[in-house]
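Shapes recur. One chain:

:::
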Amino acid sequence: MHNIQLAATQIVQQVLVDGRNLNQVLDESLRRKSVWTPAQRAALQDLSYGTLRFYGQLNAILELLLHKHMTDQRITYLLLVALYQLEYSKAAQHAVVDHAVRSADILNPKIRGLVNAILRNFLRNEAELLAQAALKDEGRYSHPQWWIDELRAQHGEQAAAILATGNGHPPMTLRVNHRLSSTNDYLTQLQEEGIPARVIAPDALQLEKPVPVDRLPGFFDGLVSVQDAGAQYAARLLNAKTGMRVLDACAAPGGKTAHILEIADVEMLALDKDEKRLQRVNENLQRLTLNATLLTGDAATPLAWWDGRVFERILADVPCSATGVVRRHPDIKWLRRKKDIAPFAAQQLDILTALWPLLAQEGLLLYATCSVFKQENQGVIDKFLAQNPSAKQQTIDLPGGALLPNDEHDGFYYALLQKTA
């Protein structure tokens, strides 16, 4: 257990101190632990994700427990991991404390006694410490203060629910390939395999509990894909018809590309500026036996790759702050800064402006983000519309174009634009 604690401590520190991506650091750590069992690997993931998910609360508690600043940062992050275990895991409390003391003995033997005292103090005064931590917004909501302030200003009474959802565990949702099966038929197959699920959208089934993909009937034969229900709105809103020429301008990892192809026989160009991520698009299409032209290129500079033929449909799923998917990527909460939002919005407007000449007359462009901040959403669209009189925003069946994160889907924003005369 203490080896897992130590590994999680190193991962959390690299994310919070060095600003590294959680998935990348975790993958690197797991590659060095090829002899670990699946249970050990899952435990490391849980400790890493969980500590970052509740970092705001855990850090507030630790500040109450410490009488002075901890000079050894490694011990700080070890204590955060241990506090997460004590508050949120099913591990025996005495075992967590014992392992933390042994881990401290490896990192800094002089502080092992302090680690023991801090964790036991937490256990003695848990309720009071939790209540005190919740008096501050970051301790209550486990999000940065600027983020909390932005949500309150933009979403009012809905802010608390958005924050709570951001601290939850994401659902596992499947997209049924309607070329090969129907939603109800695949639901029956899941039931026969003892995998409880329910229909939440025309192509979407939400599992009661996540399962490995190799347990999903026909997964490797292309019957289903794993895709959030919110992301599945894109293909339906774009409404591509058979025979149309379609561009997915920021395609990786390919879920939306594949969904469009599952719905209609279109001439698809899947574009992404990251060649390695484009390989994932290819892998997904091969599994689903779908065809598209894959091209490495930057959506913001189409003159470098465009052949001059217009598209009847364009999907612009632009880079964004990813503030709508933090329950899947809890490191985003602590890596993102308020000052990052304006550059994202500027980049999004640049991409939208660059892609507009590629759209055919009367064609549709679907702008999409996984952000909950209006600066990246309707704010970008309003600026674009003011600069482009040939663009008209179409009404879609989403209030304000927004899907706020909840139990069924992540947070997304969609705007459908039509090119008029």
Remarks:
- The longest strand covers residues 359-369.
